[in-house]
Write a structure and sequence with these properties.
Length: about 350
Amino acid sequence: MDTTDKSSRLVANWLLIGVGMTIIQIALGGITRLTGSGLSITQWDVITGTLPPLNEQQWLDEFNKYRQTPQYHLLNFDFTLPDFKFIFFWEWFHRLWGRLIGLVFAAGFIWFLLKKHFRKEMIRPFVILFLLGILQGAIGWIMVASGLTGDAVYVKPTRLALHFIFAMGLLCYTFWFALQLRVPRDQHIQNSSVRKWNGYILVLVIIQLLYGALMAGHKAATAAPTWPTINGQWLPYNLFRGDSFWLNFIDNKILIHFIHRGIAYLLLVLILLWSLRMFRIKGSRLFEKIKWIPLGIVLLQVLLGILTVLTSTGIVPGRWGGFEWLAQLHQLTGMTLLLSLVLLLFVVRRN
């Protein structure tokens, strides 16, 4: 193996560690949301916020800050200090893991730079990756700040969705960059039709993930905890309401539910047809290994989505149960589906 190949592999492996850490970070974000922990820390201290409160007085100071928030006054007014410590932990750990990702990125960058493993064409992607990381952190704080004023009990669903989609973008960009360095050219195949289908499905999955985040932000699962119908109706009568037609697409829980389910069924059909097309194609060793993955994942994803909706009637505030496990698995499976599509998009090239 020559020095260039070795350098590419080392940098790619480092990037894949970043992909793994980002997946964990997104999972921690899901836990933070499901436990209602996101507003427990009312300040953004990049350095001093690394350590949690270390004594009783510091805990009381943080608790008093939380007691000034709308969420405490309107929802968690009966919280004791142990209750607060529980939600504080998940938000603190979510932020700490984000700092660790930044530390791994910075330390790795310096080490690879000193060891001269970087090639000239790697610099631009790294700059973009760095800027995306900073942007994601800023969006995260903007999201949290939306729940600290007025009569907000939770963060705004649209800002939660924005934070989630940008996290997906950062994840996919890092993964793509690693693939460029890790996958040899002889593993690519050429098929314009398969790649075009891949592109359409990928766009649809991004829209689906956006609506999944809106579902989560609005806590919309309980608005229609039935299947296959939505509260007994195939076409709900209250899909549109209010003065603004367009606001329904981000604020109306029933319409969000309807769109999210509809896209899921459409994706299932499209990925099935696309997979049948791919199964008839003989390609590289890597292509043969991965071409079945999206179909397997989407089947699991639809099942998890149905079970998540049906178990939403058993939600107990402040307690982790069946719904929370299923919702978390549903989110992680959606993320895995996205990455599988990115992988196939990388492997399958135009003719």
